[in-house]
Design brief:
alpha+beta; Aldehyde Oxidoreductase, domain 3; Aldehyde Oxidoreductase, domain 4; 3 domains; 7-stranded mixed sheet; 5-stranded mixed sheet
């Protein structure tokens, strides 16, 4: 077994001191001399045609320095896929949800900016609205976009294998419909930007983004500036969870206000704006049909999804496609049929949220797996074990499973939960399980490729500067990457300084999204570190009178493997040089290395069939939840969640456990309490106190079981786990509720009212 000196040990985050002492600088902490404050005037109707925007009264408010409307930049659009983007930064002719951006102000104070916004007069003709995706599909429904007949934003139709034959060969067919609602990200730091345009026309923008380099490209396109004149900087971020991985009007509007005023401008959303205008998790209606053999093997599976896109394009089609793909990669499914429609409605548009469609479809799949187990009189654990994917499988949709800890996660999770004795639990207590599969490293082709890059500089004191394009959005990726660099070079992790999130100094990467940071970013860092190590070994070999292949390094020393006592320090190797001009460099010729890791494994799906291996690795896992249900109030209390997680190789076990605990908290909210409540397009719970977000006081006990499967392509065998912990939680809780009180609830969140209604219906039957 390989001995590691840095990775695999519980390691506190490198920025822990800054975080806990309050020294970490978040965007709202940034202030510049002569800075202006921004505000946005928004639509008060869900659907309407703009005839005129009168800004004269706003312009006369003391302190106002700029007012902009769509006439200032009529072609600017925002979205994840810019070729599809149909959301104008500032609306020119038609608003499509309450909160749509109409005009923006920059003023000397926040109060002046908001007062000026309130004085903007919009001559607006109300148009018929539609808020329900099923209603939006009806023939007489109001049309939200002229170029989208029937309000259809997109359709997906795929079939792998002969589904009709699969159902014909099934002994029993199960079909149920499951629903999930819109859920807010609730980042503790609301979205914001601060922009400065210098005398040379160069834009620097600080943004609470997860995608600095991608945002730079989008700003370049929308502002007609070369990328060399744009610098995107990410300070500490108070959460993202996917909400900050698309461009937003906030960033572009802030940049335009700075350009127009020639002064720094800061534009930060209020909590109300965050709830009413920021992207939420896409609501889905999922009808799942599964054909089974009498002995419990899946013969065929078919799913139909209706996704509520909201008012505009963002990632609805891609996220729905990702959800569809999950139906055949966790369990062995010999044939599958996937159909979906993504539909526009007059509500705030959706976006990415941790899990990228997987939490929705996994809730449906895992709920139905328990329903099937009951009907076939098979233990839910045994049913899952019978059908589980294994390492080496090629799924019906083309996914290549190169490592897989699913079976081990099932057996170890069940053992930790004392599954075999679950019938001995107290009355009104129940236990349920759910499995999942999730892609790691994102799909090939996203924003021009699937890659990451890194620079490494070894100082003459033996310390290392690591510059990575992977921004740390709070998940601790900087520490994981530092551990990889330290392990390869052979120095303590404390000697690594990580620089990220600044397009002016770090190499390109696609951002913090898609569970890609450890896998893709880690591979790039590993390659760069290996280059730096080779340079150090070359110098050390000359000094130690040996060859490079006979050297090893650890704890800051480079030594001969057969004679560990014969060594020099990394600092000595970094400060030495064999070059003739050494006298001109008394500190030594610098050791500088770089690398770009390009994913060689995943592939673009076949355009006709959708077949393909869409990511380089897949993470698996099982969660077992224990709940208690109060049958008088309907209240569900989650007592314990066991998370058995396939991590590939645990680079930093402490960080993984923290990720799982945070993810499970989000999963409990998704399962039981959280939803954005709309009434005719108006958000009725636009504040944290009304949204019912779980707090630490609501958190259950969590037991983490880390399963190491050592993925052949991951850095030291690692996989990404940033999204994984959230995905199965709702399914496990729903199954545990059924086990406790015998009611099956197929719509999230499972509120106390729904539990009471279901119990009452059960009693009447």
């Amino acid at each position: 077994m390989t001995k590691f000196f840095e990775i695999g040990k519980p390691t506190p985050r490198l920025d822990a001191i800054e975080q806990v002492t309050g020294k970490a600088q978040y965007l709202p902490d940034l202030k510049f001399p002569n800075m202006l404050y921004g505000a946005i005037s928004r639509s008060k109707v869900a659907h309407g045609r703009i005839h005129n925007i009168d800004t004269h009264k706003a312009e006369r408010v003391p302190g106002v320095k700029a007012v902009i409307t769509s006439s200032d930049f009529s072609t600017a659009r925002v979205g994840f896929f810019m070729e599809m983007a149909n959301k104008e930064c500032l609306v020119s002719d038609r608003v499509r949800f309450i909160g749509d951006d109409i005009a923006a102000i920059a003023a000397e104070t926040q109060e002046s900016a908001e007062e000026a916004c309130s004085l903007i007069e919009v001559d607006l003709e109300p148009l018929p609205s539609v808020f329900d995706p099923e209603e939006a599909l009806k023939e007489n429904a109001p049309l939200i976009h002229e170029d989208s007949p029937g309000n259809i934003a997109g359709e997906i139709h795929k079939e792998f294998g002969d589904v009709a034959a699969g159902f014909a060969a099934s002994d029993q067919v199960f079909e149920s419909t499951y629903r999930t609602n819109a859920v807010a990200h609730c980042c503790l730091e609301t979205r914001g930007a601060l922009a400065i345009v210098d005398a040379h026309g160069r834009l620097t923008i600080w943004s609470s983004t997860q995608i600095p380099h991608v945002l730079r490209e989008i700003l370049s396109m929308t502002l007609n500036l070369p990328v060399g004149k744009i610098r995107v900087r990410k300070e500490y971020v108070g959460g993202g969870f996917g909400s900050r991985q698309s461009s937003d009007p906030n960033d572009i509007i802030c940049a335009l206000l700075a350009k127009k005023t020639k002064r720094p401008v800061r534009l930060i959303k209020s909590r109300f704006e965050e709830f009413t205008t920021d992207r939420a998790r896409y609501p889905m209606i999922m009808t799942l049909k599964t054909g089974m053999s009498v002995d419990g093997h899946i013969r065929a599976r078919q799913v139909n999804i209706l996704t509520d896109a909201g008012a505009y394009h963002d990632q609805g089609i891609m996220i729905t496609s990702h959800a569809l793909g999950r139906i055949s990669n966790c369990y062995r499914v010999p044939c599958a049929k996937l159909d979906a429609k993504v539909v526009f409605t007059n509500k705030v548009y959706g976006g990415a949220f941790r899990g990228y469609g997987n939490p929705q479809i996994t809730f449906a799949i895992e709920s139905q797996m328990d329903e099937i187990a009951e009907q076939l009189n098979i233990d839910p654990l045994d049913l899952r074990l019978k059908n589980a994917c294994h390492e080496g499988d090629l799924t019906v949709s083309g996914a290549r499973i190169t490592s897989c800890g699913l079976t081990e996660s099932l057996t170890r999770g069940a053992s930790a939960a004392n599954w075999k004795n679950k019938g001995l639990r107290k009355q009104k207590r129940g236990i349920g399980m759910a499995c999942f599969v999730h892609s790691g490293g994102g799909s090939a082709g996203a924003h021009g490729g699937n890659f990451s890059s890194a620079f490494i500089k070894v100082e003459y004191d033996g310390s290392v500067d690591l510059m990575t394009g992977v921004p740390d959005a709070g998940q601790g990726s900087s520490t994981a990457l530092a551990l990889i660099a330290a392990e390869v070079i052979g120095i303590p992790v404390a000697n690594v300084r990580v620089h990220s999130g600044d397009t002016g100094i770090v190499p390109v990467a696609l951002g913090a999204r898609g569970s890609r940071e450890t896998f893709l970013g880690g591979n790039a860092v590993k390659l760069a570190a290996e280059d730096a190590r080779h340079q150090l070994y070359t110098r050390a070999a000359a000094i130690l009178d040996t060859t490079v292949d006979k050297l090893a390094s650890a704890h800051g020393k480079i030594f001969i493997k057969s004679q560990p006592s014969k060594f020099i320090t990394v600092a000595q190797a970094a400060s030495k040089t064999m070059h003739e001009y050494a006298a001109a460099f008394p500190m030594g010729v610098p050791v500088i290395a770089s690398a770009c890791y390009t994913d060689p494994i995943s592939e673009m799906a076949d355009r006709t069939t959708g077949y393909g291996n869409l990511c380089p690795t897949y993470a698996f896992g099982t969660q077992v939840a224990e709940v208690e249900v109060d049958t008088d109030t309907g209240q569900v209390t989650v007592l314990h969640v066991i998370a058995a997680q396939d991590v590939g190789k645990a680079i930093n076990p402490m960080a993984i456990e923290g990720q799982l605990e945070g993810s499970i908290s989000q999963g409990i909210g998704f399962a039981l309490t959280e939803q954005i409540i709309w009434e005719n397009g108006v958000v009725r719970n636009p504040k944290l106190s009304a949204y019912n977000l779980p707090t630490p006081l609501d958190h259950s006990k969590v037991t983490s079981i880390l399963i190491e499967t050592n993925d052949p392509a991951g850095p030291f065998g690692a996989k990404g786990i940033g999204e994984a912990g959230l995905i199965p939680t709702a399914g496990a809780i729903a199954n545990a509720i059924y086990d406790a009180v015998g009611v099956r609830i197929r719509e999230l969140p499972i509120t106390a009212d729904k539990v009471l209604d279901a119990l009452e219906k059960n009693q009447q039957q």
